[in-house]
Amino acid sequence: MTVTPETRVLQSPGATLRYDVRGDLKEADADRPVLLLIGSPMDAAGFATLASHFADRVVVTYDPRGTGRSVRSDGGGELTPDDHAEDLRHLVEDLGTGPVEVFASSGGAVNALALVARHPELVRTLVAHEPPIAGVLPDGAAVLATVEDIHRTYLRAGQGPAMAKFIALAMRKGPLPESYAEEPAPDPAAFGLPTEDDGARDDALLGQNLRGCCGYRPDVDALAAAPTRIVLAAGEESQDEMTARATAALADRLGLPVTLFPSHHGGFLGGEYGQQGRPEAFAARLREVLRTA
């Protein structure tokens, strides 16, 4: 069954946010709370397939500030997970249904962890899928140095060369050697990326979120003390990649297991952005995990 989403507008300090509600909020209750699906900087469009597998409950997706339909009025610049956490707080409060369940992927998982650390009463269960928190890794200094290099490359040469470096980092298996920065830069054309600089510097990932996301220092004590049930998840095909390694390292700090999900970092995707995971199996696993809450 296809559920047509209702788009709503929310004024958050420094941004006009747009979010989509699938289902009737009046039907959300303690037995089936709202399921909030979030990414960052990926917007609501990336969750269309996954949301379609939860037509039996109320599902909410949103565009983080500076992406999709959510417009910034804060003067621009880089954002932090705490910035996004406050937007998420306003969103959950605007729903008016009480604590929600959250599936959050990648940068969205980092932002959701920040939300739980600051406002745990708003989230009943958080499934944090592959948060790229570099600082918890043994090779965190090398990863963060690489992130800084990607940011400098973006400012100097534009989207293509910087995104090529980002993709190479995301695909890298195992810890980064200290000499990683000395390796030859990847060719943007090899990834189908532009080699010429168009002068734009408005990329939501490279210009707004990358450094704040990867450099986020989670409040482990606050997360451990939160009443929220936290599930740290990674893809079966993501082993030894930075995001899966960071998930495992954070899980170790919190004394939690890593819950495996089908496919890879984008395992829930069903063709969005030209990427294909295993969304049906992914949704079944998510449903199972939420059912055990």
From TrEMBL:
Gene3D superfamilies in UniProt: alpha/beta hydrolase
Stored Pfam families: Abhydrolase_1 (PF00561)
PANTHER family referenced in this protein's UniProt entry, alphabetically: HYDROLASE ALPHA/BETA FOLD FAMILY (PTHR43194), PEROXISOMAL MEMBRANE PROTEIN LPX1 (PTHR43194:SF2)
SUPFAM superfamilies: alpha/beta-Hydrolases
InterPro entries membership: AB_hydrolase_1, AB_hydrolase_fold, Carboxylesterase_BioH
Signal sequence segment: none
Protein name stated in the entry: Hydrolase
Top-rank lineage group of the source organism: Bacteria
Keywords linked to the UniProt accession: Hydrolase
Organism encoding this protein: Streptomyces longispororuber
